[in-house]
Automatic annotation (TrEMBL), chain A:
PANTHER family: D,D-DIPEPTIDE TRANSPORT ATP-BINDING PROTEIN DDPF-RELATED, TRANSPORT ATP-BINDING PROTEIN. GO terms for molecular function: ATP binding; ATP hydrolysis activity. This is Peptide/nickel transport system ATP-binding protein. GO terms for biological process: peptide transport; transmembrane transport. It comes from Litoreibacter ascidiaceicola. Residues 4-250, 268-508 form the ABC transporter domain. It is a peripheral membrane protein.
Automatic annotation (TrEMBL), chain B:
Its main location: membrane. Residues 95-297 form the ABC transmembrane type-1 domain. It holds the Pfam family BPD_transp_1_N. This is Peptide/nickel transport system permease protein. It comes from Litoreibacter ascidiaceicola. One of its GO terms (molecular function) is dipeptide transmembrane transporter activity.
Automatic annotation (TrEMBL), chain C:
It comes from Litoreibacter ascidiaceicola. Keywords: Cell membrane, Membrane, Transmembrane, Transmembrane helix, Transport. This is Peptide/nickel transport system permease protein. It is found in: Cell membrane. The keyword Chaperone does not apply. The chain crosses the membrane at residues 68-87, 228-250. GO terms for cellular component: plasma membrane. PANTHER family: OLIGOPEPTIDE TRANSPORT SYSTEM PERMEASE PROTEIN APPC, PEPTIDE ABC TRANSPORTER PERMEASE PROTEIN. It comes from the Bacteria. The lineage of its organism: Bacteria, Pseudomonadati, Pseudomonadota, Alphaproteobacteria, Rhodobacterales. Pfam families: BPD_transp_1 (PF00528). InterPro entries: BP-dependent_transpt_permease (IPR050366), MetI-like (IPR000515), MetI-like_sf (IPR035906).
């Protein structure tokens, strides 16, 4: 008997159709991977199973869980089902827990809600057991901990412990590792796989990341625009027939063509850069502690080179980036751009593209003004021709300059961000997680654009990312950063195929990989 | 927790010192000197000199400030020029009307606002919510002293349920409470309207947080999620407003006393102003500021009780 | 949208009344006609007459001037000083300047406008200017805190970082990127402070710390009416309704503006 079967599910919210004819099934002990880009309806499919939908949503079709029709259940029957028969894990562990309650109380609540006769002591004991199963041992993570005392990965384990405390038959995980670092991601995925094995539980794993899902799913469903376009086994990459599936696999492992050869002259030189932060005092009169975010870092980028900087969150790569951009003072060392310290004169040779296509622009200005902002460095206004040229070079049209930023999609916004970086013809462009927030197909296009621009204008790139596959696709050389230090440096291909530092080895081993097509 | 408390005590002390300096400075900037100011234009020079001596105005600024502050610390607020008796005694009598009035009003505010705000949030969009939103809109707009006059008109003059004003003294607690009932309601209703709206919007905000969704996925009903999780988190903004409201209630109490002819701090300070009794004005103002600062301190400590993130590392 | 229109209509009505009163009122409010005192509302005197025989409708028109002028100037003072302070504090977050500005704000919050008015009156004597200063001073920390809070979250936006990469300084960024994006919030808060100013002015004139006779003001009218309330309730009713509807109109307009501009704005009550 299948555990969960969704048959011809259609969902509309206030009359707007969201899902069309979705049919999926999950068996006991089976992992179903559901893949889709943003807006594909994958998360709402998951929420339909729990019937936790936004107000105004209405479902048609059938959702059968353990032989019962979920859509026919009353609200109280649904409450009895949620947490007992189905557990759910969410994307954002930092906000998924109540900040003012201990983790013990929150895990125990799952038990107390469904088994009200349980004594509080008993519930706490079982909560401790669930947390231990999720690799949060009591000696290190007592029940009295509060969420703010834990890291993102640890919080995600608490959320999982809450979901599996009553050993439900089905677990739904909605992008459970998207907000986490690659090594943490690997641990969480291992944990989920282990729980599925131990409890013979079904798992519906929702992700935008093909590599994550193909690594562990037994079956894979691809969703687009509210419908399942293709479904197959773990070997979907061999059996796929739908053009969208093929395009998705292709985009995920996309490698843009690059034809520049780096010159021998260094453009950016970072020499023993050190950045300390003062921590809040522990006691009233004690010495204030210091945290060394960037520790004696030295490297250089040659003209025309594309250099990658990878590391997990908190490793100091953002601080280093800001120091290079001249936004943070250094406590030691120097940063030279074209042989000169970063100051008003050489700043114009360097521009930046940020991660978030939505937060990168002042919503009150038109594109022309947004794009021409760097001209402040030259002390003059941009000419119309210069604005047009910048927009055209990133694949937009001059007509776009009179629009406001909200009229553009995420991918188009990132093109505008690149246009803003290009407009004063800098030599170095710092790409700070510049493609991390984009869907894979858009990401492939932006990577192509970047490769094309570096060919045409002889640009030098510093590519900062937590995403190893992206760095591998577009850089010549790569630095690996850990705890404020550069632990390994080398040619990208060599570094990825034969990493020498143990941390690099861990990182590369942890990164989920796509099967070769 | 201890560190947080120590830090708060530190900033409490600084606030009090700065507030006392500000008030002291205000009185010092008076054109001419306080003694001739208090005595008016026709004062004889030797009377002024005598008063200067009595007020200690011949000492240096720092000495005067220090003796004022140390005096207050030991309960000596100086001697009122008009009443010819210690300020502390006079204020002490009057305080027992204004402070209870403000506290009763605060209690009423919370008692009314919490259930109403929670009701409106749980039944969002219903007729109950709509009528709460409409009534509170009126409650915010109504001047409390005018509302008090209307209540006097209705309950004292027409229905004769209450006397129109005056205070029988605390020897008869029931009568005293009765005399404070209308003033407290007049003070509380506008503030309760504000607090109910804050409560409602804070609850609705927390109900849209991710962790409420997590709770629902655990099997909690919307109602359980609200009572067990949303309410405590919503208390953080609500506490801030309650702290601010106390200072408005205290100030409001001073005004409302006029409507009900209550012999509280309000009547005292307005008389003192017209009689140019600076020492009295200075002392009353400082006392009120002291009360506001202490309440804000209590609110800060309450934050830490509600929100473990403020308690620092365990 | 309905509340915006209704609120604006009420506000405009009172503002027009105040403006018209400069050139015309049904009766001259400076002329006392004791023989005609305390007349209930009639066709001649829509709102009746007060204890000096003055037309209450005309008094309310003239009184609107005082209320509106005091409240507007107080908002201007609060915004004019509070917004730059808030912007500066946010631009130098964690610095000594920020600390001083924020502690100063906390301190002013301990002095409700009534206490400030009491201090000022004790020193300089009562006047409408006192009311303006007292309410204005209390408005400063409201705007400073609000601006700082909103500006702090804007300073972490990537577009501010981009502006810094483009070499722009803190002042320029505050003016170009921060201020336009907190403007909506300030407009909405401005209407709320405006309505609070009307209430505060009424309270101050009621206890004699605001506008002094013969300048008509709504609070003063209520103070005069208080002793006569049993005898002639209409004298107390109409000025109170004037305050109530002006404040209600401003609040509705503020709520409507917030919904029209951005429903997620966080204002302070």
């Amino acid at each position: 008997m299948t555990l969960l079967s969704i048959e011809n599910l259609s969902l509309s919210i206030r009359g707007t159709p969201i899902l069309r004819d979705v049919s999926l099934s999950v068996g006991h002990g089976e992992i179903l991977g559901v893949i889709g880009e943003s807006g594909s309806g994958k998360s709402l499919t998951a929420f339909s199973v729990l019937q936790l939908l936004p107000s105004g949503a209405s479902c048609e079709g059938r959702i059968n869980l353990l032989g019962e029709d979920v859509l026919a259940k009353s609200e109280s029957a649904l409450c009895a089902m949620r947490g007992r028969d189905v557990g759910m894990v969410f994307q954002e562990p930092m906000t998924a827990l109540n900040p003012v309650q201990t983790i013990g109380a929150q895990v125990a609540e799952t038990i107390l809600i469904h088994e009200p006769d349980t004594s509080k002591v008993d519930a706490m004991k079982r909560a401790a057991h669930a947390l231990t199963r999720c690799e949060l041992p009591q000696d290190k993570f007592p029940l009295s901990r509060y969420p703010h005392e834990m890291s993102g990965g640890q919080r995600q384990r608490v959320v999982i412990a809450m979901a599996i405390a009553l050993q439900p038959k089905l677990l739904i995980a909605d992008e459970p590792t998207t907000a986490l670092d690659v090594t943490t991601q690997a641990e969480i995925l291992d944990l989920l796989a282990r729980l599925v094995r131990e409890d013979d539980m079904g798992l519906m794993l929702i992700s935008h990341d093909l590599a994550v899902v193909t690594d562990m799913a037994h079956r894979i469903a691809i969703m687009k625009n509210g419908a399942v376009v293709e479904e197959g086994g773990a070997d979907l990459h061999r059996t796929m027939s739908h053009p969208y599936t093929k395009a998705l696999f292709k985009a995920s492992s996309h490698q843009p063509d690059r034809n520049v050869t780096p010159q021998d002259t260094p453009l950016l030189q970072v020499q023993s850069a050190t950045r300390d932060y003062t921590l809040p005092r522990k006691s009233l009169f004690g010495q204030a502690d210091k945290f060394r975010a960037v520790d004696n870092v030295s490297f250089q980028i040659k003209r025309g080179e594309s250099l990658g900087l990878v590391g997990e969150s908190g490793c100091g790569k953002s601080t280093l980036t800001r120091a290079i951009l001249g936004l943070e003072p250094l406590q030691g060392g120097t940063i030279l751009l074209d042989g000169q310290p970063v100051g008003p004169e050489v700043r114009r040779k360097m521009q930046v593209v940020f991660q978030d296509p939505y937060g990168s622009f002042n919503p009150r200005h038109k594109v022309a003004r947004l794009v021409s902002e760097p001209f402040h460095l030259l002390g003059r206004k941009a000419t119309e021709a210069e604005i047009d040229e910048a927009l055209i070079s990133v694949g937009l049209t001059p007509a776009d300059k009179t629009k406001y930023i909200h009229e553009f999609s995420g991918g188009q916004r990132q093109r505008i961000a690149i246009a803003r970086a290009l407009i004063i013809k800098p030599e170095l462009i710092v790409l700070d997680e510049a493609v991390s927030a984009l869907d894979v197909s858009i990401r492939a296009q932006i990577l192509d654009l970047l490769a094309d621009l570096s060919d045409r204008f002889g640009l030098t790139y510093l590519f900062i990312s937590h995403d190893l596959s992206v760095v591998r696709a577009i850089t010549d050389r790569c630095l690996v950063m850990q705890s404020g230090k550069i632990v390994e440096e080398g040619d990208t291909e060599h570094l990825f195929t034969a990493p020498s530092h143990p941390y690099t080895q861990t990182l590369i081993a942890a990164a989920p990989t796509l099967p070769d097509l | 927790m201890l560190r947080y408390a120590i830090k708060r005590v530190g900033s409490l002390a600084i606030s009090l010192i700065v507030a006392s300096l500000v008030i002291f400075a205000c009185i010092e900037v008076i054109p001419g000197d306080p003694a001739s100011f208090m005595l008016g234009l026709n004062a004889q020079p030797d009377t002024v000199a005598a008063l200067r001596e009595e007020l200690g105005l011949n000492a240096s600024l720092a000495t005067r400030y220090l003796s004022w502050v140390t005096g207050m610390l030991s309960g000596d607020f100086g001697t009122s020029y008009t009443y010819r008796s210690p300020v502390a005694e006079i204020i002490g009598d009057r305080l027992w009307i204004s402070l209870p009035l403000a506290l009763i009003a605060l209690g009423l505010t919370v008692l009314i606002a919490f259930p109403v705000g929670i009701l409106a949030a749980t039944k969002r969009g219903s007729w109950a919510d709509m009528s709460v939103m409409g009534a509170t809109q009126l409650g915010i707009a109504i001047p409390n002293f005018w509302f008090a006059m209307l209540m006097v008109l209705l309950f004292a003059i027409n229905l004769r349920w209450f006397s129109a004003g005056g205070f029988p003294g605390w020897e008869n607690p029931a009568a005293a409470l009765k005399a404070l009932t209308l003033p407290a309601i007049a003070l509380a209703l506008p503030q309760a309207s504000i607090l109910a709206r804050v409560m409602r919007s804070a609850l609705l905000d927390t109900l849209s947080e991710d962790y409420i969704r997590t709770c629902r996925a655990k099997g909690l009903t919307q109602r359980q999620a609200l009572w067990r999780h949303a309410l405590r988190n919503a208390m953080i903004p609500v506490l801030t407003i309650i702290g601010l409201q106390f200072s408005f209630l205290l100030a409001g109490a001073i005004i409302i006393e006029n409507v009900f002819y209550l012999p509280g701090l309000g009547r005292l300070v307005f008389q003192a102003i017209s009689q140019r009794d600076l020492i009295m004005v200075e002392s009353v103002v400082f006392l009120l500021v002291f009360a506001v600062i202490m309440v804000n301190f209590a609110v800060d400590l309450a934050y830490a009780w509600v929100d473990p993130r403020l308690r620092g590392r365990a | 949208m309905r509340s915006l229109i209704f609120g604006l209509a009420l506000t405009v009505m009172f503002a027009l009344g105040a403006l018209v009163s400069f050139v015309w009122t049904p009766y001259d409010v400076t002329v006392l006609e004791i023989a005609n005192k305390l007349k209930p509302p009639t066709a001649d005197h829509w709102f009746g007459t007060d204890h000096f025989g003055r037309d209450i409708f005309s008094m309310i028109m003239v009184g609107a001037r005082t209320s509106i002028a005091v409240a507007i100037v107080a908002v201007v003072i609060g915004m004019g000083l509070g917004v730059p302070l808030g912007l500066a504090a946010a631009a130098r977050k964690g610095s000594l300047l920020d600390e001083v500005i924020m502690r100063g704000n906390d301190l002013i919050f301990a002095f409700p406008s009534l206490l400030i008015a009491i201090l000022i009156t004790a020193i300089f004597g009562p006047s409408a200017v006192n009311a303006i200063i007292a309410i204005g001073i209390f408005n400063i920390p409201v705007f400073a805190r609000l601006t700082r809070g909103a500006a702090l979250s804007l300073w972490t936006r990537d577009y501010v970082l981009a502006a810094r990469v483009a070499g722009k300084g803190a002042t320029r960024i505050s003016v170009e990127h921060i201020l336009p994006n907190v403007a909506n919030l300030l407009i909405v808060q401005g209407t709320i402070q405006f309505s609070l100013g009307i209430l505060a002015e009424a309270a101050l004139s009621y206890v004699g710390l605001g506008a002094q006779p013969p300048t008509p003001s709504w609070g003063r009218m209520l103070a005069d009416a208080q002793t006569l309330i049993a005898l002639a309730p209409h004298v107390a009713l109409f000025p109170g309704f004037a305050i109530l509807f002006t404040v209600l109109g401003l609040n509705l307009a503020g709520d409507g503006l917030r919904d029209a501009l951005d429903p997620k704005l966080r204002v302070m009550r």
